[in-house]
Amino acid sequence: MFSCTELKDNMKENGVEIKDNGAEDDARNSADIESKLEKAGIIKAPDGGYGWVIVFASFMANVLVDGIIFTVGQSMLGLWEKEFESSKMATSITTSLLSGCYLLAGPLASALANHFGCNVVACAGAVIAAAGFLLSVLVPALPVLYLTFGVIGGIGFGLIFLPAIVIVSQYFDEKRALATGLAVCGSGIGTTLFAWLNPLILHATNNNWRTFLVVMAVITLLCFLCGLVFKSLQPTETQVEEVAKIAADYMEKHGIEQNGLDPHEKLSGAVETTDSPLVAGGVAIERFTPKSRGAQSNIQLNGRPFLSTIELNANRRNKSDLWSHNDLATIVSKESVADLNRPLSRMNIFYPGSTVHLVARTGGSNLFPAETRSRCHSMIDHKSSIYLSTQMLPPAEEMGSSSGGITWSAGISAALRSMLDMSLLKSPSFLILAFSGFLTLSCFFVPFIFLGKQAGLKGVSEDHQSYLLMTLGVINIIARVACGIIADHPSVDPLVVSNAAVIIGGVATICVPFLSEFWMFVAYCVPFAFGVACFAALRSVICVELLGLEKLTNAYGILLLFMGIAALVGPPFAAFLSDVTGNYDLSFYVMGTLMTLSGLISLPLRRINVRETAKRNVNDAVSDVELDHLAV
């Protein structure tokens, strides 16, 4: 595998002449400006202070959301079977829709939080989920329950869950592993708490599931209080002034001299470019070229234009007054700098570990072509660029004309495109990772729903059945903490840990039909809970190591789709097998096999990724040399 420099030297030896014509000097100048803008415009995570309030609120949101999702199936399915005289498969669709829509709503929740803020989206999610539960009280038939309880409730929970994770990442960098670990521990504690609480509520309501859902709706509304706490970080006045000064210096010293155009003409033309990339929808300086498609910026981060809204704000001002430091300072507003710091602006927003170890995780060679096509020296030296993500500036017809800004629909659409770019499926490594996740999630919720029923068939009392869910919750907490430590130590291979945990959990699930005593079922909870906890906690870390940080947001969005679909089909399929056989033995055989297979197909993933990365880097280096040669 050749580096960019080695490949260029090799081509020179073979008679290929390569000239830079000052391009490298321009790149260095741009890199200096980019570095200054990053330092000035990106809000530094406080790694404490109010952030710990955020962690507690996120923890409580996880307690409530995951506590309900993981335990409501065992509490409700039996009652719904009797009420609607339906099969196990038909009834299980309700809870599978709840968990499936909870995951499928992830990309939408992220896009909405990116535009409206985590607090608004989480509060809206609490209201939507509670409304879904309350509407379920009135349903006359099971199919209506699919919509109210499953779809509406699941989407509401999804709108709570993603903002609760994203907001923690905004407040923590160095201590993110600890903060995220504490927040997601709410999942295990919630499972334990509601496994104990649900039977008490049912007993108090005389096993009336409609009254039970009213209580669940009230509990869900507590997430509204959590959402109120999720306030985004805001830039200081000093920060805004510093960004404005850098922007003004660039306009005066670089933009006008290089382009040689009247600044008013340049400014009016920049707004109408339709192919210009945008980072975070933030403050902006385009190249100020005349009206044309595909104009590119001189200031770039990750090989893309960094700024793009100063021109939009400037349209509302007299252009003849623009070209001064003072006037530019009024255009670069606090809001425009805040836009730069929207959640999806940071490529590491879904990374659960400390960002201190990101360079060790990414290595520098796992970036995709958009990154590696940049000149070798800028790719190596410009380390701080790994913290910024990419979103595309919408076409001109999607831009707001009255306010000079980007419409809310265009902003959400851009965020969704950044998360759901299906071209990532061309990567063999990611395709295996996604399919592995699909298999694991097919089995993920099955023990939470059917383990108690299987134990009941073996003579375990109903009171003891709830203890099994409590055990799953406790082990989940321990496993999450362990995975947080793993995520914070680059020397530990998360792929090996995840594969081993999933395989062991799958094999244990295959053995469930052979269990006959209560203590045996408790023992089973240990490997299964460790398996699913490691899978959930380490997935983002594995994505970063295999695909590079630049693709984490995209990978996370697509993985949520795969996992959401798996959660939709897994429990009903297990219930169908139970309807056919009259017991749950075949269900656990099949689901355990799928989970084991999930870990097995991921065993060669590291080797496959090494080959894929080597091939991609050589191709990108060749393209880089060819572009340099053509530029001569």
Automatic annotation (TrEMBL):
Keyword Membrane: yes
Pfam families: MFS_1 (PF07690)
Transmembrane regions: 49-73, 93-113, 120-139, 145-168, 177-197, 209-230, 430-452, 464-483, 495-515, 521-542, 554-574, 586-605
Membrane topology: Multi-pass membrane protein
SUPFAM superfamilies tied to this protein: MFS general substrate transporter
Main localization (coarse): membrane
Top-level taxon of origin: Eukaryota
Segments forming a coiled coil: none
GO cellular component, one term: membrane
Every Major facilitator superfamily (MFS) profile domain range: 54-610
An annotated Gene Ontology molecular function: monocarboxylic acid transmembrane transporter activity
Compartment(s): Membrane
UniProt keyword terms in alphabetical order: Membrane, Transmembrane, Transmembrane helix
Name under which the protein is recorded: Major facilitator superfamily (MFS) profile domain-containing protein
Species of the source: Steinernema carpocapsae (Entomopathogenic nematode)
